[in-house]
Amino acid sequence: MSAFKSSKGYSLIELMTIVVIVGLLASFAVPKYQGYVDKARIARCVAEIRYIQKDITAYFVDREKYPTSLAELGRSQSNMLDPWGNPYQYLKIAGASFTSRDLGGTTYYARAGRPSGPPESDAPREGGFWSGSWFVSEAWAAPDGGGGVVASPRKDRFLVPINSDYDLYSMGPDGQTSEPLTVPLSRDDIVRASDGAYVGVAENF
Q: Does the global pTM surpass 0.70?
């Protein structure tokens, strides 16, 4: 008789049971792992926005003005991509010719840094302006009647700009965005708000 006993193989039912168990364990583990990956990417994005913010501050201290684009910081294009492979978005606000706000289907403009309260549609119109320093024409709002049109800044749920100096943000995992943070496309954005006091997910601001 052989000194070794022949080993029994696994039956089909046992193999199927093992596969089911492994599948169940994977169904619990994969979402948790993806959650950790998402949190890590958001944390990296927040850190990178703060790092770019420091570069912008250094630029401002050196030149007494904000850059018109991130390219002026001297960084390579590869250093300007967020964790999802999309370019970081930047908009200079301070020093721009005017800011804008929508009300009742009408866009109102104000000289940068000089709005005196929100525009009111029923305010008396005088010399082309409504409600203090808010105008119904960008030509009236621009100093000396000149200045180029700038992209509209990011806005909170009250349609008030979230920054007074500049916007800096990532469009988030979906790579899409819209001006108001309350729009579904914007909720996953990683934004700089309150002039840098907040950097994080737009939905949480």
A: no
